[in-house]
Amino acid sequence: xxxxxxxxxxxxxxxxxxxxxxxxxxxxxxxxxxxxxxxxxxxxxxxxxxxxxxxxxxxxxxxxxxxxxxxxxxxxxxxxxxxxxxxxxxxxxxxxxxxxxxxxxxxxxxxxxxxxxxxxxxxxxxxxxxxxxxxxxxxxxxxxxxxxxxxxxxxxxxxxxxxxxxxxxxxxxxxxxxxxxxxxxxxxxxxxxxxxxxxxxxxxxxxxxxxxxxxxxxxxxx
Length: 222
Ligand SMILES: O=P(O)(O)OC[C@H]1O[C@H](OP(=O)(O)OP(=O)(O)O)[C@H](O)[C@@H]1O
Ligand code: HPA
Fold this sequence. Notes:
hypoxanthine phosphoribosyltransferase activity; alpha/beta; binds 1-O-pyrophosphono-5-O-phosphono-alpha-D-ribofuranose; 6-stranded mixed beta sheet; purine salvage; transferase; binds hypoxanthine; 11 strands; disordered N terminus; PRTase_dom; Rossmann fold
C-alpha cells in the first residue's frame, strides 16, 4: 500500500496513520504518488479542513487532494492494532512464535503490532520477507517475486504468524503460507490490517483482521 504524507513518498505506509481510498488522475510514477484509478468522486479541495471529513483526526495533516475518502482514522487504527496484539498474545501464550512481516507494505503494521503482543509467547522472533506482485500498478502481475534471502530453516518447528497490510486477491498470502508450511512451521496463521474480501481469487482466511475494506485501491496516510 503506497502512502502519502505532506509530500507523497514511494512505498511509505503506515499502520498508525489513516487509511484512505484514492481518487484522481493517473500518476506518472509511484515516486510521487499513489495509484491510477479515477473513482469518479469529487476530489476534496485542499482548503477543506481535515476535520470536516469523516473519520479524520483533526490533528492529522491535510489530506492529499487525490484522496477520495478517509476510511479509518489514526486513532481507530491504533486502538484496533492494540486489540489485535492482545488477541494474538492470548492465542500464542506459552508457544514459540515467529512473526513474519511481509515487506514492504507491512513493515509499519508489523512493528506496531508486535509492541502490543501480550501476554508474551514463550519466545518471540520477528523477521521479514519481501514479496511483491503489484510493482507500481494497482493490479497484481500474478507473478509473486520473493526475496530469496529469507532463512526458511528458522521457522521449522515454530508457530508462524504472517503479518500483512492488506489481503486483496489472496495470492501473496497463499504462496507464503505454502512456503512456511513447506519449511516445517508448526502452524501458520495470518494477521492483516485490511481485508478486501470482494477481490479474493485465492481462498485465504486471516485469523485476525483489523478492518474489512471496500473494493477500492487503498493507501496509507501519515
Ligand atoms: O492479496 P494480493 O492480491 O496478493 O495483494 C496483497 C499484497 O499486495 C501488496 O504488496 P505489493 O505486491 O504491492 O508489494 P509491496 O508491498 O512491496 O509494495 C500488499 O502489501 C500485499 O503483500
Ligand atoms: O488496495 C491496495 N492498496 C495498496 N496495496 C495493495 N495491494 C493489493 N491491494 C492493494
